[in-house]
């Protein structure tokens, strides 16, 4: 994340996380540290994976005390190993103790997503299909989680509801049909917005193509249905496959030739990467 993004989009979220963890004071730290003492603590990886979120980790301590120094020996996107020393945090020991959990929560969560995304993206290597995330993100964590997907080698689908037109089953139900929904979207949305339609059967595929959809999402279809859908679309729209896509079942999609495959699992099911702050001492 660059400095502008951090300041405009992330700082207020990080502050809210800190306020959640420190509603009035850190009573434990204040019990054992009566005054400022300069200290140092090591950032250690306890599991192999892909690191993501180092700037966010650093920013937690800076927002508590802008004199805190953070040194990193790796960068976002690097493969890290169990036992690896990834950096050090130097500053007021009270700040190191009070910021530890929030900083690690961000770094562990983001690194877990990057690690899982990396493993799924590897299964698509050699194909033309791009791996996308979804809006199935943790509330108030989307900017961090979608960034982690990119670090892991995936791509971002629309960021939020203002970012693009995606006509799902309930939108189509509200409009009355695929054709009506696409036409309404074309009449309302700015012309620079692509119109994507989620379809569940081959009749809907045909209707979406004829209505002029830019992207057709094949949702929860069998392999045979997707093959036939791609034949029907015949390059007249981009194609996306979706619906309970995980690392365990994505292999059936690689040979189909769809443009995109989206997976909510990248953000909602990735386990954290185990990371710790250890060996705190005064300097």
UniProtKB/TrEMBL annotation:
Q: Which GO terms describe its molecular function?
A: nicotinate-nucleotide diphosphorylase (carboxylating) activity
* Pfam families reported in the protein's UniProt record: QRPTase_C (PF01729), QRPTase_N (PF02749)
| Quinolinate phosphoribosyl transferase N-terminal domain span | 26-111
User: Which segments constitute the Quinolinate phosphoribosyl transferase C-terminal domain?
Assistant: 113-278
The answer, when asked if Transferase is one of the entry's keywords, is yes
**What UniProt keywords apply to this chain's record, in alphabetical order?**
Glycosyltransferase, Transferase
Q: Where is the signal peptide?
A: none
Looking up PANTHER family in the UniProt record yields: NICOTINATE-NUCLEOTIDE PYROPHOSPHORYLASE [CARBOXYLATING]
Protein name in the entry: Quinolinate phosphoribosyltransferase [decarboxylating]
Q: Which organism is it from?
A: Faecalicatena faecalis
């Amino acid at each position: 994340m660059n400095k502008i993004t951090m300041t405009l989009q992330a700082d207020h979220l990080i502050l809210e996380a800190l306020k959640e963890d420190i509603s009035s004071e850190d009573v434990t730290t204040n019990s054992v540290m009566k005054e400022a003492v300069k200290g140092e603590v090591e950032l250690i990886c306890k599991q192999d994976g892909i690191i993501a979120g180092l700037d966010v980790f650093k920013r937690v301590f800076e927002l508590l005390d802008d004199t805190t120094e953070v040194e990193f020996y790796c960068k976002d996107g690097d493969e890290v190993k169990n036992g690896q020393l990834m950096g050090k945090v130097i500053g007021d020991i009270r700040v190191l103790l009070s910021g530890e959990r929030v900083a690690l929560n961000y770094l562990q969560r983001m690194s877990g997503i990057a690690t899982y995304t990396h493993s799924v993206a590897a299964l698509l290597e050699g194909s033309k299909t791009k791996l996308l995330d979804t809006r199935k993100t943790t509330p108030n964590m989307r900017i961090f989680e979608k960034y982690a997907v990119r670090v892991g080698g995936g791509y971002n689908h629309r960021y939020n509801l203002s970012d693009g037109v995606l006509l799902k089953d309930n939108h189509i139900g509200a409009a009355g049909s695929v054709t009506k929904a696409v036409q309404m979207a074309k009449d309302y949305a700015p012309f620079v917005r692509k119109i994507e339609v989620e379809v569940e059967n081959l009749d809907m595929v045909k209707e979406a193509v004829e209505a002029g959809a830019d992207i057709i999402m094949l949702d929860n279809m069998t392999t045979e249905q997707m093959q036939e859908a791609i034949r029907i679309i015949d390059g007249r729209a981009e194609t996306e496959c979706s619906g309970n896509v995980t690392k365990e079942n994505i292999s059936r999609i690689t040979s189909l030739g769809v443009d995109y495959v989206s997976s909510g699992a990248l953000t909602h099911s990735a386990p954290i990467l185990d990371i710790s702050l250890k060996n705190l001492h005064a300097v």
